[in-house]
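It would be a great kindness if you could assist me with a short task in structural biology. Thank you for your consideration; the sequence and its tokens are set out here.
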Amino acid sequence: MQCTDRAGEEGDTFLKFLTQKKLYFFFFFLILVFGVGSFFLFENLAQFETSDEDYWKEDRIPSYWEGIKEGFREGDWSKTAINDKPGVGLALISGIGLPFVPEIGEYVRSGKVGGDWLYRSFKTEWSESINFGLRLPVAIFSLLAFAFLLFLIFRWTHSFLIISFSALFFFLNPFLLGISRILNPDTIFWISSFIASLAFFLCLEKQQWRYVFLSGIFFGLAVSSKYTANLLVPIFLMTLSVFFIFRFSKRTKKEAQKIFRHTLLQFVSILVLGYVLFAFLMPAVFQEPSLFWSGTLFSPGLIPILPFIAGFFIFLVIDIFIFKSFFVLTLSSFLRVYNRFFLRFFASIFLILIFSHLINAFSGGNFVPIDDIKEITRGELNGEKYNKTLPFPYAQDDNALIAFVKKIMAQSASTIFSIPSFIFFVLIIGLIRMLWKGKTSYQEYVFVALALPWIFFVGGIISGVFVNARYAILIQPFIALLSVIFLVDILRILGKRCPTHRQTIFLGTLCIGFLCMVSSLLSIKPYYLNYQNIFLPQSLSLADSWSYGVYEAAQYLNNKPLAQYLEVWSDRQAFCRYFVGKCLKSDSFDLSRVQPDYIVISRRNVTRGNHFSWKYPEGKHYDSSYYYTEVFETPEWELLIGNRPGNYVKIIKLHKEEKNKEERNR
């Protein structure tokens, strides 16, 4: 099934232009985008740290490969279960670099037992080599996956404009690029899940089993990386339903019945293939079957909605084989009449969500807090104990409707403001146009992309999980391609109205988009995961440093004279992997034994009340709270990530001298 009729006149016009220019511009543009994106992807690949990476590079990734060895050697595969995420996809790809890095075991042992028991020490000269060796395979995988993703988009749309803007919106997207170069299950999860989804769209478009196989493989890789990928099950069912309502129900009854049986079989085949691949990538499930179920159908992300999915699937099967698809065809024919209403409905509620966030942000967070929103929502502000059930304290005194709106805004805030500024602008214009016209190209995809975010936002409320931008990472690629579709539709209309300037409009928009996307990258480089767009006032921040900045803090202190003798306490243990001096372990110090020279502190830990203290306070020394109040705003060194005052890493020098007499007598 060809899509040239849907690719539209803009594809033919642009193809003609490209043919006339011997395709030089098109290939030059893609090479330029991939070249610039690759520079940002690989630059300083070893010289940063993000939260929780140490668990993967120092424990889980080596353990997985050790488990593979033990499995072949002794028949014991238990060590291949390394985490509840489960993170196997990450370990499989990143572990390719293990033979080329220093001995992880010796590096970790030095951190646990090296030096005096008061200190935490690492072979700091190994830290960057380990980072580079384990991150490089992940970055290369991401680069190849980006290219394959563009290939699938072209196979689906056959539009040169769409493929050009897709290259921009994916490979120069700060958040997607940032997540694609770290050691985290989300790195493999997001792109594998999106490729699986696109392959499923192609499967429904073209009715070819090659895309079933492709979707199943990447679905299995996604599930083996993070159990959140099981949400693709309801997403696939929703996609199938949308295609049937918007397209397949237009066929004759006999043809529609045949297509529906065929697509339902393809859906089941994708799930079976994906779950079989998951089992083989984590063979511990053959020794402990409960691991299989907890990583697939009974995973935490799927359990709350599993009864609804099972009921819907059983209904479909019964209707197909007993009632000859009578109910599905009748319902689809009825709903198809209202397809414009549904598109307008989802466009309107998404626009309402966006404008609610903009109003809230420019009012300083009067409706829903912005600064410290994660800590406030989770009930862990200023040392409060984290409650597994999100308390949403700012919504407790409101009626049910207002409280629900506030909860949705809290769950969606970091996702909305992590959309790159240019994409954000295009998205708003496209939604307004769709609300006005009630139609768009690729309406099946548009419907799914607009419905998808609510699965995460509402699901997070039901599951008691705060949904930050990383947890909802799958929304980002769907929104990116949605914005591409909106933009190309707008350019096609402009091209029709100004036919003599059509090529100028197309090429000019590409150049503007390129400059805007590069500008977004430069504005946050190299802390891509902390990106927030220009629509969030600079005085506010929805992200914490996530351990970004500790490398730079360590280098600042390493360059001081006799740095190896300095004693430093940091609220981020990652700092110790790069600091050549003595890194203090405990949060509470005996002044008779140790007096730190500096403390290194970050926004989130200060917000949560994770401070150092004196074990035996003495009146002649400054109280530890002094360093979080009086000298807090005048640190010796400070890094503001994204130039946002609310997202910092600071180095504060401690005063070893006694307080002056006047201060003691006061």
Observations:
- Strands lie at 119-120, 567-570, 582-584, 588-589, 598-602, 613-614, 637-640, 648-653.
- The chain has a mean pLDDT of 89.
- The radius of gyration is 27 Å.
- Residues 124-157 form the longest helix (34 residues).
